[in-house]
What does this fold into?
Amino acid sequence: MSAPPGTLINRLSGVTRRLRRRWELGYGAWILGGLVFVTWTVLVRAGCTDRLDAALTVPVLPPRSGRGQVLEAVSLLTHPLLIYTAIAVAAVVAYQQRMRRLATALVTSLLGLPLQVGIATWIDHARPSSAFADSLSYRGFAYPAGHAVAMTVAAWVLVTLTRARRRPTSQIRLWRVAGILAVAVTCASQWAMGLQSISDLIGGVLLGATVANLALSVGGTEEILASWAHIGLPSATVDKRAAIVYNPTKFDDLSLLRRRVESEVLAAGWQPTLWLETAPDDAGHEQTRRALAAGVDLVLAAGGDGTVRAVSSELAGSGVPMALLPTGTGNLLARNLQVPLDTDAALRLALSGTARAIDVVRCTWDGGTERFVVMAGLGLDARIMADTSDDLKRVIRSGAYVVAAVQNAVPHPFAVDVALDDAPGHADAPGTPAEHRVVMALLGNVGTITGGMTIFPQAVPDDGRVDLLLTGPNRITDWAKVGAGLLIGQDVDGVSHHQARRLTLTTPEPVPFELDGDPVGRTRRLVAEVEPGALHVVVPPDPTRPSPRPAQVTHRDRHK
It folds into this structure.
């Protein structure tokens, strides 16, 4: 029997992620780099790059000029012997600290020197004529450029190891830029002094990248990064453990996420983290149940609003706190609770913040029951969510919702009967008709949506009430009034706000609806009931609120 198409797609997706991860860690990349270097070497030997070198010949620069002396200093500081000596010293230090794999990688990278000398002697490519012929950097053959090989090896290895340290994403990017600039400055100084031609420098960079990838692969990149990330961490641990439920499609570099999480967790003295990956057909329900069964003290939800909804739905009523690692497009719960959107800051908060009890809204419809923590919607809102392209969200993020909204610019109104707290009409206005004609009915547990717009000005995530927004403009021109009403948070023609502990929406025909941004289907009846304080979420401290309990209440203690 053949496997279902969905299963085959999931398997292919898993294989693709594993291959991508191996590629990012350098496995096999050195083979491709070696092939590219060999191809470029063949072109250089055949004279195919002579025109390129002639076209990019540098003007004569006086050696004793100010610029000439600066370039000479750069050339001496980036001399291959100095670079390889520094790498050798680093290898000895790593070995003394019992980081054997790192030491192996660094020693392997030293192969760049004999390889460059051997290939240069074999190619026998003469250096261009230069006014700096008396420089120490002018010794030996030209191809591949020794300075470029050495600096590329050093920069490549250093930048790779830097990714393992506990630094914010912005700093990691700066290190990457610094590594690229170091190689660029080295090559520019060699070219400006007339010591190397462009083809020599390109060959040097290609050989250096190949050697660096080979060194990291021989040492074992994952093992090197893991040990490097643990430097300086406390040896003592506490009897606490976190689980992380993560959506792999939301991360460009899962290996970097793992190192960051483990570094912060171990730095706090916690036990190693339980990692649970979501699946295309399960946004995190089963994974969260597995985390609860394992008796963890904290569950981190790493993904978009769908992952957060699945995790929070399972944690509701359990007493186990949830922490947020926002990685989606909306990140609405994180924004409303002031949780940092930066991964490192969110991690630190998760392990040191306080847990705030917030409400969860349980929805029951024609086809089932599920909870939400942010918002739900019938009609236009659900159509926009269904028409929003996931691929477009990766490119323009929240702008993808605008594109979907334009596609639904002329929505179809529908009739809806509203019962608040099991009574028709509004509790504060009993005479208000229970039947409305709308294009959208929004339910909110918090007030702010994508783009920072507050459409539920009275919404508080722990007030024991769910907010309802009904909007039904009759003409296109009425949308201006609706927009103004949403911006000022007040009722205008076509916009009305309501609150209830329990509400029921009933329509004559099935209407599409969504929960926390995920299209669910169609229904004629939707019942929303608040579960007050059912979920504990780790949030930044708020001096205006009473001191909540710490987030690190253990799951095991609750059952003793």
The chain has three domains: 12-229, 242-353+550-555, 368-533. The chain has 21 helices and 15 strands.
